Amino acid sequence: MGDFLGYARVSTVDQNLDMQLDALNQAGCSRIFSDKVTGTQAERPELTKMLEYARAGDTIVVWKLDRFGRNLKDLLDQVNGLDDRGIGFKSLNDNIDTTSPGGRLVFHVFGAMAQYERDMLSDRTRAGLEAARARGRVGGRKRSFTDEKVAVARDLYDKGTTVASISKTLGVSRGTIYRYLFPGGKNAAK
């Protein structure tokens, strides 16, 4: 049987790690790694050190699931990576212990629920976009170079105004002027 390796993290520098450290010590962790960074940051140096230090047979212990992963997908990926290396995972407050068959089942149910939620979100997004398209709406940013501005640009160009002047006057790039006035490219200009 390997070592229990603890990992603690607080989300702001002014928060205190004491409660997590006490729980990890009480759980029998032989070594504890701790970061004082937000969970959304990709760089968590102590977590990286712990993952490099851990060997097959060890168990990573955290106070709560949200201390280990930045989000559910990250958590699932991390724990699956540990499992591939023969390393267990235990969350004290969430009663998850992947070193037991029941703990692995619970964790895989979490993973399945997360995948289901991602699929449902994707389906809802797709349905919403299709409904919007059916009503004549298109996604994306609104055009800043409206049909009215194109007409003004065409009129100014026909009166001999340079593309650079039109660009400055209408607040769009020269490339935009060329794209709308000369769909064939700059060579299509007079």
General description of the model:
The chain has 190 residues and is α/β, with parallel strands linked by helices. Helices cover 49% and strands 12% of the residues. It is built from 7 helices and 5 strands, in the order E-H-E-H-E-H-E-E-H-H-H-H. It has helices at residues 18-26, 45-53, 72-84, 101-134, 147-158, 163-170, 174-181; strands spanning 4-10, 31-36, 59-62, 88-91, 96-97. Strands 2-1-3-4-5 form a 5-stranded mixed β-sheet, sandwiched between helices. A hairpin with a 4-residue loop joins strand 4 and strand 5. Helix 5 packs antiparallel against helix 6 and helix 6 crosses helix 7. It is elongated and about 85 Å long. The chain starts with a strand and ends in a 9-residue tail after the last helix. The mean pLDDT is 86.
